[in-house]
Amino acid sequence: MVRRAEVVGKARELAEQYRSRVGESPTLRELYYSLASIGLIPFTHSAYKTLSDVLAKARLEGRFPIMLIKDMSRRSVTWLEERTYYPSKPLTEEELLRALESYIDSYSNVTVNPWEDQRYRVIMVIEKDSLYDTVETVIKKAFPLGVYHLKSIKGYSSVSEAYNLALEINSIPEHQKPVILYIGDYDPSGQDIARDLNEKLSKLARRKDYIFEKMAVTMDQIIELDLPCKPEKLESLMKMRRDSRYKGYIRSIDELSMKNASVRNLIEKLGTKEIAVEVEALTALKPKEFEEIIKKSIEKYFDYKTYEEKTKPWIEEMRRKAEEVKKASLDALKRLSPKPQG
Fold first, then answer.
1. All residues at 6 or more sequence positions from 5 whose CB lies less than 8 Å from its CB, including other chains
2. Could you tell me the strand order of the sheet in which 120-126 lies?
3. Which of 175, 121, 167 is nearest to 148 (CA)?
4. Whether this model's pTM surpasses 0.90
5. Residue of 4, 8, 187, 192 with fewest CB within 10 Å of its CB?
6. Cis bond leading into 217, ω under 30°?
């Protein structure tokens, strides 16, 4: 039987060879095939899952470099992202001038971080990538200034993703407190994913003063908004019961009911403790309420007075200067533009 330490050691060796050869780290899947091809682990789904668990633990414990495995499966957006675009073919002089004019014309839309002078910086994390666009749209409507960082994790976060989020937390200025607002399902996996992410961050983030808060779905929201929470399909119910976290989840609801009369009443009404609510039930059935949840959750950590007195004047000044640069640049371009023939 192959020892886990041997697998970790060989995986690190193969990953370093891959990065030296290709110029970037391999994915977990690529590492799995490399290890299986030399007979160290079998070509089976269970072996892949075991390898994922073993390397995740090794990375958290510092026995395997975190960024030695590439993870490209999640999406995120933060302020002040830099993007460079290259044309697919050489541009003519006229095309180049038109491209420069278009770029300059957009220059006055200065991207400014509205959280610059705040006591907190809010990072919002979504359990499902499928909800990314929905949440982004709701944020723009509920709180147009936006959160500092928005990202999706597609269920259980990889160590790479948790590490990247930890780096984001560490990069926030010391005088500001990082806040993680989490959106995920209320079911055995959904509750545990939030716990798992927070646990990884507690190990990987240098800063320990961050706030981790599950914004939705919560038990209070299930009760107050009367969300459908009893699995109606036998298939859904059986899937829940097969979940390895099922017993602990039911136990947590039982403990909650001992402290909260509203939870006891809900269980009595349903005739079961098997409660499950997806985020989609909240976004689809209670869109206005979801928008209000987003708004209140962000505003809890945003000081409008500070923004109006310090940040907004600075933003307006930046935009005024940008307009001046834009006008001067466009005037200079007009003087350089090709003269019409004839």
1. none
2. 76-78, 149-152, 120-126, 177-183, 211-216
3. 121
4. no
5. 4
6. yes
Residue 93 and residue 169 in contact, taking contact as beta carbons nearer than 8 Å: no
Tell me the average pLDDT across 178-202. Answer: 96
* Residues whose CB is less than 8 angstroms from the CB of residue 303 and which lie 6 or more positions away in sequence, other chains included: 118, 119
Q: Could you tell me the two tokens for 294?
A: 């987003």
pLDDT, position 78: 54
In angstroms, what CA-CA distances link 107 with 71, 313, 314, 327? 33, 19, 17, 10
Tokens for 185, please give them. 């399902």
Tokens standing for residue 73: 């499966």
Distance CA 104, CA 100 (A): 6
Higher pLDDT, residue 186 or 110: 186
- The number of residues making up the chain comes to 342
Q: Where are the domains of the chain?
A: 4-68, 72-229+277-342
| Tokens at 297, concatenated | 């959750």
